[in-house]
Design brief:
Keywords: Plasmid. The protein is mainly alpha-helical and 158 residues long. It contains seven helices and four strands; from the N terminus they run E-E-H-H-H-E-H-E-H-H-H. The chain has one domain. The strands form two sheets. It has a two-stranded parallel sheet. The protein is globular. The mean pLDDT is 91.
Length: 158
């Protein structure tokens, strides 16, 4: 699977099937996980600029040294199993540009919804988003990975 940043003429303006992160239902934990995920995507696409924080360092800053390592490992696992289950490339917003990072791509939305609904004990919704994300391929490993990440999260509000 390939990872690529979204390409748009207008930085910070959502394109078709995109939305603004500020309009999304995701809580602080989920947004912080997105920050780490985007660094993982950039690392996998070999798009990390010099002198930029590695995903693990960013997770330590967001969540503390011990919990950050655990969360980073769970995020990497979730991204990895998603990549195995998906046939299409994954488009993500550039984490190194504030305007671009304010926009959620469709695949990012679906991935975060899997985590969001898993944390709120809404397995049907989590599975529905996972099926769309993974092109109707088996999603059990992705749901399991989301559950592992959810176990490390603070309690979610409904």
């Amino acid at each position: 699977m390939t990872y690529s940043t979204r390409q748009t003429r207008r930085c910070g303006t959502p394109g078709p099937s995109e939305s603004l992160l500020s309009d999304a239902v995701f809580d602080l934990f989920e947004r912080q996980c997105l920050d780490v995920m985007r660094l993982v995507f950039a690392q996998m696409a070999q798009n990390l600029p010099p002198l930029v924080m590695e995903p693990q360092d960013a997770a330590r800053v967001q969540f503390g040294p011990i919990q950050g390592d655990r969360i980073c490992a769970a995020v990497v696992q979730m991204v990895h199993v998603m990549a195995i289950s998906r046939s299409d490339g994954f488009r993500y917003s550039n984490p190194f540009c504030a305007g671009c990072a304010a926009v959620l791509t469709k695949p990012e939305q679906l991935l975060l919804h899997v985590l969001h609904h898993t944390r709120r004990a809404q397995p049907g919704q989590a599975i529905a988003h996972a099926v769309m994300l993974c092109d109707s391929r088996p999603v059990g490993p992705l749901i399991d990975a989301a559950a592992e990440l959810a176990r490390l999260a603070p309690p979610a509000r409904a």
